[in-house]
Design a protein that fits this description.
There is one protein chain. The longest helix is centred in the middle third of the chain and has 16 residues, at 65-80. The protein is 35% helix and 20% strand. The protein has helices at residues 3-11, 45-53, 65-80, 90-93, 126-129, 138-150; strands at 14-20, 23-30, 102-109, 112-120. It has one domain. The chain has 159 residues and is α+β, with helices and mostly antiparallel strands.
Length: 159
């Protein structure tokens, strides 16, 4: 990446970062039209955190966008590796996680954090949690961020 491309990213005031155990998995810079980047108060930040990373949302305990995506990847992984011709051993089912891994999600405005939340990564198999690729859901994440940051905002563009 050349200096011109790096400078363009630096000009975008909004960013989100997904980490596992404080190591960056994904980082994206973007802009929100009609929102003052000097805004410091976001009344819907808790709802945004739940919508993106919540494990037990609403009346039915639905997961947020990222945990839901990882859950679906877990199902894909388990079905791809399931062999109905091999008997399942009870000891294999009760495997304890080796360590407590943790996903963190952070939103920044002009490099200043406005939200940081997280959830346990030990629910997902190691092959899923250490090979996270969220390219498919990045547009959904950015749309959700834009929606909640501009929702009921005095800076929201009319129309």
């Amino acid at each position: 990446m050349n200096n011109l491309e790096t400078k363009k990213f630096d000009e975008l005031p909004y960013e989100f970062v997904l980490y596992i155990n404080n190591k960056i998995i994904c980082q994206r810079f973007f802009n929100i039209k009609g929102l003052d980047e000097n805004e410091t108060h976001f009344p819907n930040i808790k709802e945004l955190a739940d919508s993106l990373c919540g494990i037990n949302n609403g009346d039915f305990g639905l997961p947020g966008i990222i945990p839901s995506y990882l859950k679906n990847k877990t199902y894909d992984y388990l079905w791809d590796n399931y062999n109905p011709h091999v008997p399942q051993n009870q000891e294999d089912i009760k495997i304890q996680p080796e360590k407590n891994d943790f996903f963190q999600f952070e939103i920044k405005v002009k490099k200043r954090p406005i939200m940081k939340t997280g959830f346990s990564a030990t629910y997902y198999p190691p092959r899923v949690r250490y090979a996270v690729d969220i390219k498919e859901i990045i547009p959904n994440i950015i749309s959700e961020i834009k929606y909640y940051l501009t929702k009921d905002s005095s800076n929201k563009v009319a129309g």
